[in-house]
Predict the structure.
Amino acid sequence: MDQKRAIVAVVLIFVVLFGFNYWQSRQRKEMAAEQAGMEAAGEVVEWPTEGATPAGDEGARGSTTPDTDDAEAGDRDDVMVTQDPAEETTPERTITIDAPLWVATLSNRGGSITSWQLKEYNLRLDPEDKTVVPVSLVPDGARALALSLDYGPTTLPVDDWVFESESPTYIDLTAGRETAVVRYSASGADGVTVVREYTFRADSYAFDARVDVSGLREPSGRRSIWIGWPGVRPTEAKEDGKAPASVVRVDGGIAKDGLGRFKERVEYPRVGVVEWVTTQSRYFIAAVAPEGVTCSETRAIGDTEARSVGFKAAVPIEGEGASVMFRVFAGPQDYGQISAMGMGLERAIDMGWSLTRPLSVLLLKAVVWAHDYIPNYGVVIILFSILTKLLFYRLTHKSFTEMKRMQDVQPKLNALKDQYADNKEALAKAQMEMYKKEGVNPLGSCLPMILQMPVFIALFQVLRTTIELRGAPFMLWITDLSQPDTIAAIAGFPIHVLPLLMGLGMLVQQKFTTSDPSQAGVAKMMPILFTVLFYNFAAGLVIYWLVNTVLSIGQQYYIHRSPSAAVGVSPPDAAVREGVPESAPASVTALPAFDTAGAVDETSRKPQSSNTSNKRRGRRRRKKK
């Protein structure tokens, strides 16, 4: 009856998970259609080709290489222009910075960033849509590094001000120029002046953003600069629901506000000593960190419809003004590049539990290092699967050997269960005596697997989140190791080959691990359950587990077929007799004979230790007395 219930439960799980996969695929299509509409409606910056002039800018140049005077102005603009920030007649003027890794657009409205597109990464919300749309870390219509000032009882919305700059409308960092400095300035009617200066580097996703504020003459105990970044929206057709988040380093620890927190509230404040704050999706991140000072408060801002979590952070001001330098990173979650900044920002990357995180980092570095010599991440994953199998060979060999021993003593266990069906205490005692005599450890097959779990968990985390696997091809139909290996679709349901092969391999493997007929039904359901669980996993992760399964089958086949790997088991009736307490009825000592063909002679077993023999003789003497 219990077996039937277990089978029914597994079948129900199978139906629910496949139904969920189908529903999820429909949701992704709807989201992709909606996102495509948004992209079509929004303005996308086109990267100028060599010699082209950016359209729509009155101050555009006829060449991508500015003259000397304009180049110097692009490097630094020291002109301060005083104007009424509320003036609405001033047309919006944008500045485009074209770098090898990214292209950014800045606006004189607030002196903020209106677009930050990554050249090496494309949006992938619909796997069937081949349109090349670059990943943008600033949503359409939003502004990154928008400013506001808390000044007494009021808040000055600096992002509404119209700034002035003498920089050219197009700055090219792709033709050998290493840095570019863009300077904005504006003054309000109340005498408050704000200067914004950006320093961009051609070969980096990191840049500096300095904010100078002066003229805060009115007495006030509440003065601070607020700076923020709108949420980084999903870029994948299958985005992990836990990935959109704002991560903060506050009071020396790491705090994370995931999208799931914003079902009832829009903002979550955090007060303390804040060193940096981020907004991030599965693969991309935008982070802000003040230099020389710390933020006193941050607010995570969730948008459940856009599936993103943005932030804004406050730096306190003392006196009439302040000058604050912010270090900014806007790009992929590349562990090497982020850790090179030397500010601990790599802790914002999800590398798993704190206990396994160091191992995950080590494995990530090893995978990236191996790719320098083997330019195919699929081959690297296969080699790492083989390497881990060799590393844990002795442990897995012991585990599989214990499984074989348990299979060999299974007939004796069944006989004991029949003889002690009405006496559970006597059954337990008889089983333990038999385990001791045969040298079998019921937990021996589990412990080696438990010792390997930290490595499996760390590899799982690395292969699931590493940006290096995004878009990395392997071979044949496997064109992206970070996505499921879809080969076709039937009635809208995707067909993934690797999980099916993995399930087939596990079905073969369970034939070596299960000999008890009462467990065979449930054992056959396990490959199906794992196939469902792995069905939408990234192809890279499934390749690792598939190779591991194939190697395990070979190892178990060797243990079962090789004479040198055979395990000795004593004749069943003798083993059972030794496991029967002397006080047991005589009727239970006569047990049916078992076929022991193929069993190894008693002399091939491990001898009992002298300590164990002495204990048994001592028990017998006490019973005779």
Q: What stands out?
A: Residues 373-481+541-565 form one domain. Residues 1-14, 20-25, 31-84, 564-613 have pLDDT under 50 and may be disordered.
